[in-house]
Amino acid sequence: MQSASKNVSLLSRTLPGQLRAYATEAPATEVVKKIQYRKPSRVYGDRKSHLHAQYANLLHSNDVLLLVRYDNVKVNALNKLRRDIAAAASKAAKASSSSKGLLNPAPTANASSSSSPPPPAAAVTFIRPGVFTASLRTRFDEATVQRAAKTLRGSYALISARELNPPLLASLIRVIDPRRGPVNPDDIEDAPPKVKAPPSIRLVAGVVEDRFFLTEDVVGVSKLPTLQTLHAQIVGLLSAPAAKLSQVLGAAAGGSLLRTLQGYEKGLQEEQAESSKTPSSSS
Asked: Which CATH class is domain 46-225?
C-alpha cells in the first residue's frame, strides 16, 4: 500500500498537467456561424413580366401619365371614358396642328400619302397597381415609389400622353371631373346594401416629365401656357426694347429731316417770289 501511494504521488509530481487534463475535461467551444440573410430574387410569371415591361415602356415613352381611380363603375362607363379621352385628344391635336400650320410648311401629296397616321395624342390603359408600383422603380427613387404606393390602392386606369401640352392636359382633366357628379343607380354594381357605394372616377396623381405630382399640382401644370405662347412672349420681351428704341430714333431722325426739307422748300419759295418781283419793278 505504501508503494502504491508513493507511485501515485510520484506521478502527480512529475506529470501534474497531464493528470489534471485527464481528470477534468474542458467544455467544448461552440462555433457560431453568422449566415447573412439574402432575400431571394422574386420571379414573376409571364403575365406579370409582360405587364411590368408594358408599364415601364409607358413610363419611358410618355411625358404625361394620369393615374385615375375608379370605384364601383361598370364596363360601359369605362368604355365611355375611353371614347371621351380619345375625342378630347383628337380635338386638342387638331387645335395644336392648326396653330403650328403658320410656322410649318404644308406637306406634299407624296409625303402625306406615304407617311403613316400619327399615334393618338392620349390613350387609356387599365393597370394593376402592384405591378405598376414595381415598374416605377425603373424611373424613380425609392422615396417616390413609396409615396406612390400609398396612393395606388384600388382599381386604376392610366391615361398617357406622349407630349406635355397644357391645353390637352386641361381637356383630359375636364373629361374626368364631370364624373364626380350625381349618382346614377344604373352604374352601381350589384352588391349587398351595406357595401354599396356611389360610382366614382377621379384623378388621384400624375407623372409629368419624370416628376410625380398629386392632383392639385397636376391641375396647376394644366394651366401653364403652351410652348408656342412662351416662345412668342420671350421674343416679344427681347424685341420690345429694340423696337421702341428704333421707333424713337426713327421718329427723331424723320422729324429733323422733315423740318430741314420744309425749311429748304420755304427758302425756295421766297427766292422764287423775289425773282418774280424783280422784272416788274425794272419795267
From this structure: alpha beta
